[in-house]
Amino acid sequence: MTTPRPTSVPDGYTTVTPWIVTKDTAGLLDFITEAFGAEELSRLDVGDGVIGHAEARIGDSIVMMFDSPFAVETPGLLRLFVDDADAVVRRAVGAGATVVTEPTELFWGDKVGRVRDPFGNLWWIQQRLAEPPPDEIAARAQDPGYAEAMTYVQASLGPALPAPRSAGAPA
Question: Strand, helix or coil at 103?
Fold first, then answer.
């Protein structure tokens, strides 16, 4: 009797699963639970309080994380689709996040806000408001109000991420 071949994606996971690498995975788990209603699925303490692997479910997605052994930290950049962007941004701020971009309605029909969590990760909080057809999206993109909103959203990210290296600059 042959064992059936497993599916390529385990039950409960999606094709792409984000990893967040941080110096304080326990704190990150507390933050995402409070801010985004995450459900902790697993936590593997490898000694001295170091978390070697942890998983949490936010909505229908699993996020994996571990305490970083690396000298350089790389923030995670994550998009979180929600039903109420304003409420989720307020909840994230209450849990210790800093607003990078206030929730703003953009021309393609989404309201987008961004917060930086206490661990340096940047969360795009995104709410679908409408699904306009392509011709309406094109018209909205030319509307001065939506153009101003887009300018704000693009400018607000400025200091939130490190500046890109110049071509030929050392790593």
Answer: strand
Max Cα separation, the chain? 67
pLDDT in tens, 19-62: 999 999 999 999 999 999 999 999 999 999 999 999 999 999 99
Structure tokens at 141: 């993109």
Tokens of 79: 């998009």
d(CA 154, CA 91): 23
Write the single-letter amino acid at 76. Answer: G
pLDDT tens-digit readout, 69-125: 888 778 889 999 999 999 999 999 999 999 999 999 999 999 999 999 999 999 999
Closest listed residue to residue 161, CA positions, set 103, 81, 74: 74
- Cα–Cα dist 65/133, whole Å: 38
Count CB-CB contacts under 10 A for residue 62: 19
- Least Cα distance to 162 among 65, 98, 75 occurs for 75
